[in-house]
Amino acid sequence: MNRTTHGEIARLRRTNPELFSSPLIAQIRTWALWLGFIAALAYGLWWVDANPMRIVNGLNKLGLLVGLMIPPHPGDGFWSYVHAMLETLGMAFLGTVIAAVLAVPLGFLGAKNIMPNWLFHFGLRRIYDGFRGIDGLVWALIFVSAVGLGPFAGVLAIAVGDLMIFAKLFAEAIENVETKQVEGVRAAGGNDTHVMRLGVFPQVLPVMMSHVLYFFESNVRSATILGIVGAGGIGLALSDRMRINNWQEVAFIILMILVTVAVIDNISRSIRARLIDAAPQN
């Protein structure tokens, strides 16, 4: 049966080839897209002066640096590194919490089922999207210039950078709540405040907390980078040791960051799994 079908198809292909080929315009568009992609790739590689010898030479220098890092050693700065690491964790924690708290009302305002006005909803979501396009590193440079060097600039950079992202995620979570629980509160005589507090918030709280924990562990890594541009914490200590070519202490700081992030990841993953399991199923 299959051979008959294949044979029939082959016969139709020979007798009516136009049925099995794409229209000329579609072929030209496909080829133009591929040529454009290849040209952009080639231009990008030429523009960054990509060269295999540069990679080989870079690997040689990287091997030399790795050799200088062994064995990792904190020198006389162990406790100052611990303090800087705690400062980084504090930046990530405060920035994440401030962003999450401020994002809750913005999430309700951005949810279509709470604010059904199309124009308001569309404008607010575009504001969220616009702010989300600015990277946290840019915010850090802005706040370091505005409020000076130190962890406060890092906290502001994380809080402002995450605020609109949380607002969008919270709004999407609110839009997906189960309506039966909301209708139940209304049927019991609840007003809008009761609906929010008893019908909507209990459903979205586990989802919100899961997002917050995920961003906290991500912000621990981000806070390290922010420190390099002047926001304090372990990133500042890392950049200082790199600047004076103290590579053993650089290796020790990197290991400290890796261990801390791994511990935070495991704790956060465990809590998020419990929250997801506890979330009401629609």
Automatic annotation (TrEMBL):
<dbReference type="InterPro" id="IPR035906">
    <property type="entry name" value="MetI-like_sf"/>
</dbReference>
<feature type="transmembrane region" description="Helical">
    <location>
        <begin position="250"/>
        <end position="267"/>
    </location>
</feature>
<feature type="domain" description="ABC transmembrane type-1">
    <location>
        <begin position="85"/>
        <end position="268"/>
    </location>
</feature>
<feature type="transmembrane region" description="Helical">
    <location>
        <begin position="223"/>
        <end position="238"/>
    </location>
</feature>
<protein>
    <submittedName>
        <fullName>Phosphonate ABC transporter, permease protein PhnE</fullName>
    </submittedName>
</protein>
<keyword id="KW-0812">Transmembrane</keyword>
<keyword id="KW-1133">Transmembrane helix</keyword>
<dbReference type="Pfam" id="PF00528">
    <property type="entry name" value="BPD_transp_1"/>
</dbReference>
<keyword id="KW-0813">Transport</keyword>
<dbReference type="InterPro" id="IPR005769">
    <property type="entry name" value="PhnE/PtxC"/>
</dbReference>
<feature type="transmembrane region" description="Helical">
    <location>
        <begin position="92"/>
        <end position="115"/>
    </location>
</feature>
<feature type="transmembrane region" description="Helical">
    <location>
        <begin position="136"/>
        <end position="160"/>
    </location>
</feature>
<keyword id="KW-0472">Membrane</keyword>
<feature type="transmembrane region" description="Helical">
    <location>
        <begin position="31"/>
        <end position="48"/>
    </location>
</feature>
<comment type="similarity">
    <text>Belongs to the binding-protein-dependent transport system permease family.</text>
</comment>
<dbReference type="InterPro" id="IPR000515">
    <property type="entry name" value="MetI-like"/>
</dbReference>
